[in-house]
Amino acid sequence: MKKVVNGLLAVGIAVSLVACSSYSKYKPGTYSATSKGHSSEVKVTAEFSKNKIEKVTVDASGETASIGQAAVEQLVKNILSKQSGEFDGVTGATETSDAVRRALKASINQASVKDGVYKAIANSFSVTGQMKGEVTIANGRIKDVKISEESDSTTGQWFEQAKTKFIPRLLENQSLATDSVTGATTSSGAIRSIVSSAIEQAGGKSDEWYTPVEKKKDTVKLEGYDVVVVGLGGSGILSYASAADNGAKVFGFDAAAQIGGNSASVYGPMALNSKNLAKKYNGGKDYISTDEVYQTWLKYVGTDKKADVIKEAVEQSGTALDYYMDKYDFSFDGMGGLVGSFVVPTWTKLWTVYTADKANKKWYTFGPDHTFQFTHALEKAKAKNEKNDYKLELSAKELLKDNKGNVTGVKAVSYDGTTYEIYGKSVILATGGFLGNEEMLKETYGSSIRPIGDTVNKGSGIKMGQSVGGATYAMKTLPMVHVSQVPNIIRDNSLTADQKAILSAIATTLDGKQIDETGKVLGKADKSGTENSELTVGIVYTPGFHFYNVYSQEEIDAIKTKGLSEKTAKVSIFGLGQGGKVPMANTPIKDIDKIIEVAMNTNNAWKGTASELAKKLNMKEEELVKSLGDKDKNYYLFESVAYSYGTVGGLDVNKNMNVLRKDGSPIVNLFAVGQDSEGVANKDGEAYTPWGGQAQSWTFVSGKIAGEQAAKLAK
To answer: Percent helix, strand and coil across the chain, each rounded to 5?
Structure first.
């Protein structure tokens, strides 16, 4: 029997003062919303006057007659009595009660906002500007969201995913609780902030628009694969392509909404004696001594424990690129890349650059737009077997095992809640390290680090490998740091672009006195962070990956009247520059006081005596007094922090990319590639091998080998 209940609250003779006032709580009208109950969609229709819910109809005809349907009459009474979405549920009918509650809240939201087009601004991922948008509200619903201005898309491909996926989902759900698009979390969050602001402008309460979004609960089994690839960044795609080329049936997936990962926004890989590049740019001749690179590499890591793996990294650097160029149409421009080697001046041709998309010739902050190359390779590999497939927005949760503990596949969950059990003869872990996992960062390094790379990388591959007995190697290799900048990048217009550049120069310069997070002066001759050598950005060696530049009032006054030093005036912030220019040395900075004021308001700088600063920054007062030199004078401390592109340490692997146990034995059908295993070519406590493009080269080498070996195992 269909159960539809109407409820009408009688209007008494007495009229409340609120009703008599000009205040209007709701936009009068009738509004409806639905929500998933125990076994069906439950529909709530509510009729509103200016200040009251006058009538409620609940259609729970698809719910269990003796439980859900039977609860409807009491639920309606509770709603009209409470006049709120926070009414009492009915015992025994929890799921139906919750569905009615969600649907009523959605109806209240519709009645609470006024129609119109509202403009808002929010900070987002870009460091050069804010995101601006227009939100249309009609008939009590979010009708449209348009982004009128943004610069996120100058830093990478991710904004487009937020635009094309997050906005439609938010409109469909009519909820600010809509999940951010994985990989485009910051852009999604900025859009959410813009919509939240619009709701407030329209007279609503944005915190009431977080109606829970229902998730699916079904499970899908995918069986019959030879190789399952977890992660479709560079190393994952290259593994997929190699396995498919060697006859394997392959399934790949990624947590992000876009393929490519960090590999989508880099300059290019190290390429030692690529035959294709040598033919095109060097008359067909080899252009570097691979043995010299190999010996230098062994000396750098200080052990021959992984000599066979490093030899593969060296000898296949060029041949792996040639393989993918020949088989999958990858393309690179020139030899020498951005720069030569950071270590050996004579290694001028070991680095190459991805060919940019010829359609738009676009360059992002950290490299050319070349995602089309990875997309083409993935689609070409998929076409090699009708069984081959891949899926995005699917997050790995655990390895599947048989009753003997052998790896049989991967369990993963889609953004929509669907669980997938994917079975294969081999699994390749390519999840990109752990830059996005603050807990793992602190456990490994003692502190977190600010990211510029892909924070989708939560260390899931490393954890899954460990769950079946896999060991790690050189986990404490220092993260990939190419940039230092202020900790809290100023995205609004409180400073001009040039003023922001001046602040960055003052904070990050190595010309002056630097102190670490304890208050101790950093030395010049050690790996303290003040020695910005060609080897690496020195800040990776400082405690907590940051330091403070110290200025006295006299030094600030000198900057105002005389300008910056030669060294400070030459500071350039790679990648995270904000579009401004630092004035030439000895040019007075008359507006330095304003720059300092904004820096202090944004927690990029601090002013005070040693005692005051020690309390503010949790430093050791005695050490700070000693470092500053005068316990009574005021000083300014400007903070400089490291920004990391990714982590390096990962699972221990052999030269076949098999994950190894602590006893050195291989887990024969489990492989790890890219940043999930790059530690084997590095050393704890040191910066990752600084040849130039080496990390990207490892994606090609490890991907090619793992794909080959996994396919071979399947046969």
So the answer is: 35, 25, 40
